[in-house]
Amino acid sequence: MSTLQFWKPGTSGPGSSLDRATETEENVVPSAPSSGAISIQSARERLPIFKHREKLLYCMEKYGVVILVGQTGSGKTTQLPQYLYEAGWAADGNIIACTQPRRVSATSVANRVATEVGTILGEEVGYTIRFEDVSDKQKTRILYLTDGMLFRETLVDPLLSRYSVIMIDEAHERSIYTDLILGLLKKIRRKRPSLRIIVSSATLDATGFRDYFCAGNSPDEATIVSLEGRMYPVEVAYLQEPTADYVRKAAETVWSIHMQQSAGDILVFLTGREEIERCLQELSEYLPTLPRNAPRLKVLALHAGLTTDEQLAVFEPADRGTRKVIISTNIAEASVTIEGIKFVVDSGFVKIRTYNPTSALSSLATVPVSLASATQRAGRAGRTSAGICYRLYPESALRSMPATTPPEITRTDLTTPILQLKSLGVDDLMKFEWVTGPPAEAVLRALENLVAAGMVGEDGRLTVVGEKVAECPVEVNIARMLFASKEYKCGEEMLTIAAMTAVQDVFVIPDGAAGALAELERRKFTAEEGDHLTLLNAYNAFARYGRAASWCKAHALSFRAMSRAVSIRAQLKKYMQRFGLPLESCQGDARRLRECLVSGYWRNGARWVADGTYRSVRGNVTLHVHPNSVLFTRKPRSGWVVFHEMEETKKTQIRILTEIEPDWLLKYGHSFRDKHTGVAVS
Ligand code: CDP
Ligand code: MG
């Protein structure tokens, strides 16, 4: 039946196929539905963290910082904030905050906790993510928020005075804002010792965090609490040969598990939405061959682009007689727990943001996971019973994997974070107590960018514009375009473009025949100048035709993305009004708009070359146009473009392009270039 070539160390030799292939159909029983009947309270008491409740509450009184280590699913995220709430830490109007590195975990966990507390989401329990605030100024006592939002809050409330306890969750991921907020919290604790901090991590690197908080403080500043978690054994199977297409292999593996293995749900790790959708597509081709008496298969996706309801669907137990398959990004590695997983299929890859300070290009790159991640992913199969993890790579690949993923602060563009730090009064970056210091070159580049953009003066201090931009909830480049729109008289359009580039997957273009039709629909919005204007056209049409879901469906647009753009636009509009930026329209003058785009994207210029690819202005990197771009098959008349973002998979792709005149780049880039040639800038 299956041609999969897996080899499980310790169970069977190389060359065997999946070794439970001998199981008869009777053995292939559907997964039993879980928990339905047990009360929420008893489910809470069965979590590993429950036994540690008193000890945790005691440590919270005694220590300033509690470092909490426990496996995924032990109850750290959902339970500890509730224990603190029950113990009175949210009395007198105080709030208990819990940060998440990702939007999707903040919303899903807040939802769960609201149910457990028995409140409507947005009242006692709420969440705040960028452009979306489901919390109540008076009522909310437990607040889940992204680490970026908490960091931003320090700009208006430097001592974070509304919080009694701040839990920095998923600290092992070492997202850039986790690192920055830890640095600030260490400072804040010296000024406001009543604030309590919890640093929670799914891996065992706790001593590093303790040493960090104790350095320069009393040794009693921080303590570690470990939750022992029960884990069932997980067998690991490897591919014999590397695969050229792990997405297809993942679908094939899911299918063989379904046909050959007994009950238990499957969790698949891929790197992003596009891969997940392709895998869903591949699996749907197998479905018609499912024998009539075989258990059903329910396939669900889990990634950041989903609505809250769609995300919550993955937590629902499947019906009797149905096996659940969840195809997820890295989010299911540690941030969310899904019950009933017995099989893990691991692509061995993850998408991370990387930054090359030399070319100053930032991109999303698909890279092999670290050993720590691979172990963590496999562990997802052993939470409720023994399980199996199928790794879609040969065992020999382990030798070249890094032990851990380097902290994001060492591999990201620091322009926006440094602007924000300066706005907080952290002018001397050398004196800041970093958990891990960023590379000097990346800091220098960021400072140069900020100087070139007029946000930091030659004295190293923020300029008036810099102060304002730091407050805007968008990246520096987008904020700069909003400010430049005053000069180009196109604030109205720039606002829309800023909102549309902040949402993902605006156009819904399926594969196959339906895709061709959708493509025709999209052409109705196409502007020959490029993607930014195409997005603008789509938004304007959406607004003109009543913002209806049915209209979106008929025009190959995602209603969800469009609605989000409307809400983001409304919020950014308030910032523009506050900063006195006029909302003028360019009245169809695309040239003004394109020039204004260059004010923000001047670092992202590229030149067309004869083979249809581009070369980056800085670094001369070969760039391929993303197939979704309206410039995918067409040479821009001037031969030059700016682009919104870059993504590295097998090749480096650029997304959201607009044609420009090359001399516009000089206008914005010159001070930067001068700095590099050593010529003084006026
Ligand atoms: O944070 P940690 O990984 O330690 O665990 P958690 O997220 O607090 O999850 C504890 C338990 O809550 C899990 O075992 C799940 O059973 C349940 N949970 C859920 O059912 N739905 C969610 N959205 C989140 C958690
Ligand atoms: Mg958690």
From TrEMBL:
<dbReference type="GO" id="GO:0005524">
    <property type="term" value="F:ATP binding"/>
</dbReference>
<comment type="similarity">
    <text>Belongs to the DEAD box helicase family. DEAH subfamily.</text>
</comment>
<dbReference type="InterPro" id="IPR011709">
    <property type="entry name" value="DEAD-box_helicase_OB_fold"/>
</dbReference>
<dbReference type="GO" id="GO:0016787">
    <property type="term" value="F:hydrolase activity"/>
</dbReference>
<feature type="domain" description="Helicase ATP-binding">
    <location>
        <begin position="57"/>
        <end position="222"/>
    </location>
</feature>
<dbReference type="Pfam" id="PF07717">
    <property type="entry name" value="OB_NTP_bind"/>
</dbReference>
<dbReference type="GO" id="GO:0003724">
    <property type="term" value="F:RNA helicase activity"/>
</dbReference>
<protein>
    <recommendedName>
        <fullName>RNA helicase</fullName>
        <ecNumber>3.6.4.13</ecNumber>
    </recommendedName>
</protein>
<dbReference type="Pfam" id="PF00271">
    <property type="entry name" value="Helicase_C"/>
</dbReference>
<dbReference type="GO" id="GO:0003723">
    <property type="term" value="F:RNA binding"/>
</dbReference>
<keyword id="KW-0378">Hydrolase</keyword>
<keyword id="KW-0067">ATP-binding</keyword>
<dbReference type="InterPro" id="IPR027417">
    <property type="entry name" value="P-loop_NTPase"/>
</dbReference>
<dbReference type="GO" id="GO:0071013">
    <property type="term" value="C:catalytic step 2 spliceosome"/>
</dbReference>
<keyword id="KW-0547">Nucleotide-binding</keyword>
<dbReference type="Pfam" id="PF21010">
    <property type="entry name" value="HA2_C"/>
</dbReference>
<dbReference type="InterPro" id="IPR011545">
    <property type="entry name" value="DEAD/DEAH_box_helicase_dom"/>
</dbReference>
<dbReference type="InterPro" id="IPR002464">
    <property type="entry name" value="DNA/RNA_helicase_DEAH_CS"/>
</dbReference>
<keyword id="KW-0347">Helicase</keyword>
<feature type="region of interest" description="Disordered">
    <location>
        <begin position="1"/>
        <end position="35"/>
    </location>
</feature>
<dbReference type="InterPro" id="IPR001650">
    <property type="entry name" value="Helicase_C-like"/>
</dbReference>
<dbReference type="InterPro" id="IPR007502">
    <property type="entry name" value="Helicase-assoc_dom"/>
</dbReference>
<feature type="domain" description="Helicase C-terminal">
    <location>
        <begin position="246"/>
        <end position="425"/>
    </location>
</feature>
<dbReference type="InterPro" id="IPR014001">
    <property type="entry name" value="Helicase_ATP-bd"/>
</dbReference>
<dbReference type="Pfam" id="PF00270">
    <property type="entry name" value="DEAD"/>
</dbReference>
